[in-house]
């Protein structure tokens, strides 16, 4: 993958994330207060509106996070030689798929059928899987994977995520607690994501031991903080917990990008 293609993909990730955020805001506004009230009453969290709005709020936070961070990467790292930054940008882009929850709310308010809920859920699942695999794929370059393999790893990450998202079993066709359709093998899926994040951290640790540069160690800690905060935000129904997770996500992002920038600055 050439630097020029990487720069175009950065712009593509940023543009799509911004478009998705604007589209989510417009469709949320279009149903009006009555539509939101119907969505709460019709959903799984009808008796817990605070939980409902916490889930919607965290989806909006992810959308805004993706737009801001990708915009920063486009401006500061658009021509970077760091493949790890590219795959981190892919992970950030995947967080914007949480905006599918807003689409689910709108569909519920308008009485959409089961097929629509399934499609929205699988879109969100693609974001989950693609992000998890991207974290691990990027870490492989810290332990010696050649840059010539970047395009192949990118294609593999997307294709594997599409496969997992398409075959993931759904238990219901209506909204679950997280406003998406209830899913099967949830614990197995979560273990898969956590395992990939831990393996990525191990790769960065190996990179640190091999290069004797603490930047890789800091980058590994940063990506762990990002993944942990992201998982907390995606699973939390408590406003306070969600609010506390946001600074961790921001700090992890700063630490990861700053560490990789420092490492490649002298290479």
How would you summarize this macromolecular structure in one to three sentences?
By secondary structure, this protein is mainly alpha-helical. Helices cover 79% and strands 3% of the residues. The chain is built from 10 helices and 2 strands.
Number of strands: 2
Which of globular, elongated, flat, extended, rod-shaped describes the shape?
elongated
The profile of the biggest β sheet is: 2 strands, antiparallel
* Radius of gyration based on Cα positions: 19 Å
Mean pLDDT: 86
Discrete helix count: 10
Helix content: over 70%
- Distance N terminus to C terminus? 19 Å
Strand order of the largest sheet: 1-2
Poorly predicted parts = none
- Please trace the helix and strand order, writing H or E for each element: HHHHHHHEEHHH
Beta percentage is: under 5%
Structural class: mainly alpha
Structure commentary:
Strand 1 (170-175) and strand 2 form a beta hairpin. With 267 residues, this protein is mainly alpha-helical. 45% of the residues are buried. The chain has a two-stranded antiparallel sheet. The chain starts with a helix and ends with a helix. Helix 1 (3-30) packs antiparallel against helix 3 and helix 2 (32-42) packs across helix 5. The protein has helices at residues 3-30, 32-42, 49-77, 83-95, 100-109, 114-139, 150-167, 186-211, 214-235, 239-265; strands spanning 170-175, 181-183.
């Amino acid at each position: 993958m050439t630097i020029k293609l990487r720069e175009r993909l950065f712009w593509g990730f940023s543009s799509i994330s911004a478009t998705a955020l604007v589209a989510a805001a417009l469709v949320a506004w279009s149903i009006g207060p009555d539509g939101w009230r119907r969505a709460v009453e019709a959903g799984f969290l009808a008796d817990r509106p605070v939980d409902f709005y916490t889930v919607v709020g965290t989806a909006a936070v992810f959308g805004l996070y993706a737009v801001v961070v990708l915009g920063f990467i486009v401006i500061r790292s658009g021509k970077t030689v760091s493949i790890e930054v590219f795959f981190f940008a892919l992970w950030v882009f995947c967080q914007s798929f949480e905006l599918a929850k807003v689409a689910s709310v709108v569909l519920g308010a308008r009485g959409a059928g089961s097929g629509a809920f399934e499609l929205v859920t699988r879109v969100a699942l693609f974001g989950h899987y693609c992000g998890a695999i991207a974290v691990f794929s990027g870490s492989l370059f810290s332990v010696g994977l050649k840059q010539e393999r970047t395009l192949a790893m990118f294609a593999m990450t997307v294709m594997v995520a599409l496969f997992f998202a398409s075959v993931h079993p759904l238990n219901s066709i209506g909204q679950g607690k997280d406003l998406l359709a209830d899913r099967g093998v949830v614990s197995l899926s979560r273990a898969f994501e956590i395992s990939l994040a831990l393996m990525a951290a191990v790769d960065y640790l190996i990179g640190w031991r091999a290069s004797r540069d603490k930047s890789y160690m800091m980058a590994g800690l940063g990506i762990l903080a990002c993944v942990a905060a992201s998982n907390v935000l995606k699973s939390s129904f408590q406003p306070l917990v969600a609010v506390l997770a946001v600074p961790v996500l921001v700090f992890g992002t700063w630490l990861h990008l700053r560490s990789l920038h420092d490492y490649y600055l002298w290479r």
